[in-house]
Amino acid sequence: MNDILKVENLTRSYPSAGGMLTVLHDVSFKINVGTVNAIIGSSGSGKSTLLGLCAGLDRPSSGKVVLCDNLLNDLNEDRRAFIRNQHVGFVFQNFQLIPTLTALENVMTPLEIRGEKNAESQAKTWLDRVGLGERFGHYPSMLSGGEQQRVAIARAFANRPQILFADEPTGNLDEETGAKVEQLLFDLNKDSRITLLIVTHDPELARKTQRILHLKGGKLISDETN
Q: pTM of the entire structure?
């Protein structure tokens, strides 16, 4: 299998009142194309920091990240943003939909930014796939939490990313709705062969993935295959 993501000796430190605070210590792993992976750990273990570094949203203090054959360390922010736009999708705990846009417009906007000519039809297709074919004209405030997350997932997958980073995608949802969103992610992964890297504190969700990377105190303490 090809590696879509390579992380080597990754360390991230920040200045604090008591000196430098290291939140990630010498983390290394590889992610294979098309796989479903989980990063787990308690609050403050470095999960979201690691995800941000993997996606090129932040720079490491040392070590390197290779994403879709691009060494991110050497790239400026504009180039990293271009790579994210071409290869990466995001799903967040708080949905991050634009409140003044309808569900359809929220999914269309990234496609239009990419210059897609059939953005509207693509957006409708993806909203249909996530079960929101009758919600095109609804604004986020008119949708339930689960529906908003499905719009966010449609937006992410519509861009046809090679890898999708999901940060606590079910964290703001009730158990039943969260289970439906999880299954939707897994189904879309299976259909589209998009690699998933999911940050979660939910051990049940992690056990449904193919691989679990366990962080504790900023260190990778285990790497298990399910």
A: 0.90
